[in-house]
Amino acid sequence: MNTKANNITTLNEILDKKYGKRGAKKREQWEQEFETFQLGVLLEEARAKLGMTQAELAEKCGTNKSYISRIENNASDIRLSTLMKIIRTGFGGHLKLTLQL
Questions:
Q1: CA-wise closest residue to 60 among 73, 46, 39
Q2: What is the pLDDT of residues 21-64, one digit of tens each?
Q3: SS3 labels along the chain
Q4: Are 60 and 89 in contact (CB under 8 A)?
Q5: Is the pTM of this model over 0.90?
Q6: Which class would CATH give 11-90?
Q7: Whether the Cβ atoms of residue 54 and residue 72 lie closer than 8 Å to each other
Q8: 88 and 94 in contact (C-beta within 8 Å)?
Q9: Torsion sign over Cα 67, 73, 75, 77
Q10: Could you give the CA distance from residue 41 to residue 56 in angstroms, rounded to a whole number?
């Protein structure tokens, strides 16, 4: 939806040009990495909101600070069971998922 009148390019247009349309291998890889990044940011924001350090969260969850750091910095994949443990045990919260098709 790039219009010459207002010279606006959407994120999808940029991604289409750089990585290909949705379904292309490079695009799907980018989308997956972005979702992982978003999850790390959400966890970091929740931890900060609760006033916890990475070390405190790790101790509550039975893991180590470096693992929490890797998750928050998009350097580690996280298992669903571990994510749930962090949210339930570490934060005292509940995980809600949505699915977009």
A1: 46
A2: 989 999 999 998 898 899 999 999 999 999 999 999 999 999 99
A3: CCECCCCECCHHHHHHHHHCCCCCHHHHHHHHHHHHHHHHHHHHHHHHHCCCCHHHHHHHHCCCHHHHHHHHCCCCCCCHHHHHHHHHHHCCCCCCCCCCC
A4: yes
A5: no
A6: mainly alpha
A7: yes
A8: yes
A9: positive
A10: 17
